[in-house]
Design a protein that fits this description.
Number of strands of chain A: 12
Largest sheet of chain A: 6 strands, mixed
Oligomer: heterodimer
Radius of gyration of chain A: 13 Å
Distance between the termini of chain B: 36 Å
Strand content of chain B: over 45%
Number of helices of chain B: 0
Number of strands of chain B: 11
Order of helices and strands of chain B: EEEEEEEEEEE
Radius of gyration of chain B: 13 Å
Shape of chain B: globular
Number of helices of chain A: 0
Shape of chain A: globular
Structural class of chain B: mainly beta
């Protein structure tokens, strides 16, 4: 079945460092791909998405490119801030369907 | 602009007790979901619904029941709570099969002692 694998955390960075969180997926069709973010004590909220190969999703300085050839959707940000500390979830939505499958999440700590 | 609202936010149950978690959305979404979130395991789908009056099992349905009598509400029931059901529960909704972005509630932290 479809699945999402993302790098284990926690990831600890200093403010203004470069961030990469790796995500790879397994899917039989052409899923949409998402990154969700969960701040402490809150539910998940959509950070960015891409619906087809080579699409780049971006929001709040974060970006990720849908790479079908490597089945990847890595999250990047050029300069992280303390306020980016959160748990990040990579996810896919099954082709033509409605269920979203989530990765295990990667916790990010950003130090001042 | 309420979005997805879950009640209650916190609850402590004794083993064997029952309870119902309520999820309400005001976005006229067709699809609704219940997930549980456990450390190191991400979110796992318990049950979901593709429309009023329909429900289906997800990845971890045992010990839970759901109902979707009204389009805007999705109830999750625990008939006989067990310590293994201690978790944070999230409700989510999405518009349709083309617009699959999920909108989440703030979660219910349930402890079964």
């Amino acid at each position: 079945g479809n699945s999402v694998t993302q790098m284990e955390g926690p990831v600890t960075l200093s403010e203004e460092a470069f961030l990469t969180i790796n995500c790879t997926y397994t899917a039989t069709g052409y899923p949409s791909l998402f990154w969700y973010v969960q701040y402490p004590g809150e539910g998940l909220q959509l950070l960015l998405k891409a619906t087809k190969a080579d699409d780049k999703g971006s929001n709040k300085g974060f970006e990720a490119t849908y790479r079908k050839e490597t089945t990847s959707f890595h999250l990047e940000k050029g300069s992280v801030q303390v306020s980016d500390s959160a748990v990040y979830f990579c996810a896919l939505s099954e082709d033509g369907g409605f269920k979203t499958i989530f990765g295990a999440g990667t916790r990010l700590f950003v130090k001042a | 602009n309420a979005g997805v609202t879950q009640t209650p936010k916190f609850r402590v149950l004794k083993t064997g007790q029952s309870m119902t978690l309520l999820c309400a959305q005001d976005m006229n979404h067709e699809y609704m979901y219940w997930y549980r979130q456990d450390p190191g395991m991400g979110l796992r789908l318990i049950h979901y619904s593709v429309g009023e009056g329909t429900t289906a099992k997800g990845e971890v349905p045992d010990g839970y029941n759901v109902s979707r009598l009204k389009k805007q509400n999705f109830l999750l029931g625990l008939e006989s709570a067990a310590p293994s059901q201690t978790s944070v529960y999230f409700c989510a909704s999405s518009l349709d099969s083309l617009n699959t972005e999920a909108f989440f509630g703030q979660g219910t932290r349930l402890t079964v002692v």
